[in-house]
Amino acid sequence: MWLMLLLLMLPFGLYAQQTPREWLATIDQNLNPPQFESYRKLINIEPDGSKKEFVLYTLKKGTEKVVALFLSPASEKGRSTLRVGDNMWLYIPNVGRPLRITSLQSVTGGIFNNSDILRVDYQAEYDALSLKKLDEKGPTGRSLFQLNLKAKTGSVAYDKLEMIVDPGLKTPVRIRAIAASGILIKTLYFKKTTDFGQGIKRPAIIETDSPLYKGYKSVMIFAGIKSRKLNAEVFTTDYMGRIESLRRK
Predict the structure, then answer these.
(1) Is the CB of residue 185 less than 8 Å from the CB of residue 178?
(2) I want to staple 112 with a disulfide (CB 3.0 to 4.6 A). Which of 61, 116, 212, 213 is the partner?
(3) pLDDT in tens, 151-192
(4) For residues 89 and 105, is the Cβ–Cβ distance under 8 A?
C-alpha cells in the first residue's frame, strides 16, 4: 500500500524538486535562446474559413528585447515592430518616425495581440507563484502540471497565466490567459515540438482561440530559429528601418 502511494507521488516529486520560479526560468530557456533570429508565419482564420497570412523575420536579445520585420503581404512589407520591456513601437516606411503601440493592440488584426507577437521571456513579466499536478498525461506520457503565474505590473497584457507544462518536454502544452476580472481572454496551444538544431528544441506551432471571438482562430508557425549574436543598437527605434539589412540572403 505504501509502496503504491510512493510510486503515485514520485512523478510529481521529481519535478517538484524545482521551485515554480526555477521551472519558469527553465521553460523560458527552452522556448528562447539568449539571442536568436527566426522566421514565422502568422495566419488569422475567420469563421467562414477565410485566411490572412503574414510572414515575419524576428530577432530577439536577452529577456525583453524583440524586433520583427514584415516580409509579406505586400501591403505590410517593410513595416517593423520593436519591443523593449513594456515599450512597443511600429515603424511604417515613409511615415517619418516610429509610432507607439500597446500590448493589447494587434498589428496583424487577429487574436494574437502585440504582446503575443513580440513575446519577451515570461519571467520578465510574471512571477511564478505555485505549481500543481494534473490528472492528465502530456505528449511524453508523463503527468502534466500547472504553473500559476501573476503579472508583476498592471501594464502586462494578462493578469494571470495558467501554464500547463509537460515535464518531459519542459515546455508548455497550453496556456490560459486570464484578465484581472477572472475572465478567460484566450487559450494558447503549443504543438509539434521540433528540433531546430543548435540545441534548440521547442514547439513549432502555437494556436490560439478566444471565447471573446467565437469562431476565430490564429496560428503562429516557426519555420526556423537560429542562435545569433546581435548588437544592442539593433533594438532601438533608430534602427527599425534597417532590419532588412540583417537578413542572411
Answers:
(1) yes
(2) 116
(3) 999 999 999 999 999 999 999 999 999 999 999 999 999 999
(4) no
Give me the count of residues in the chain: 249
Domain boundaries, the chain: 13-246
pLDDT at 16 over 90: no
Are 192 and 201 within 8 A, CB to CB? no
The values of phi and psi at residue 216, to 5°, are: -95, 155
Choose from 4-8, 110-114, 197-201 the range with maximum mean pLDDT. 110-114
Cα gap 184→174, rounded to integer Å: 13
Joined together, the cell numbers standing for residue 244 give: 532588412
Q: Can you tell me the mean pLDDT for 59-79?
A: 96
- Beta-strand ranges (E) seen in the chain are 35-45, 51-61, 65-72, 80-84, 87-91, 99-101, 126-137, 143-151, 160-166, 171-178, 184-197, 200-209, 217-227
The CATH class for the domain spanning 13-246 reads mainly beta
How many other C-beta atoms are found inside a 10 Å radius of the C-beta of residue 105?
Answer: 13
Q: What whole-number distance in Å separates Cα of residue 31 and Cα of residue 29?
A: 6
Phi and psi angles of residue 199, each rounded to the nearest 5 degrees, phi first: 80, 10
Place of cell 515592430: 81
Asked if residue 106 lies in contact with residue 98, where contact means CB atoms within 8 angstroms, the answer is: no
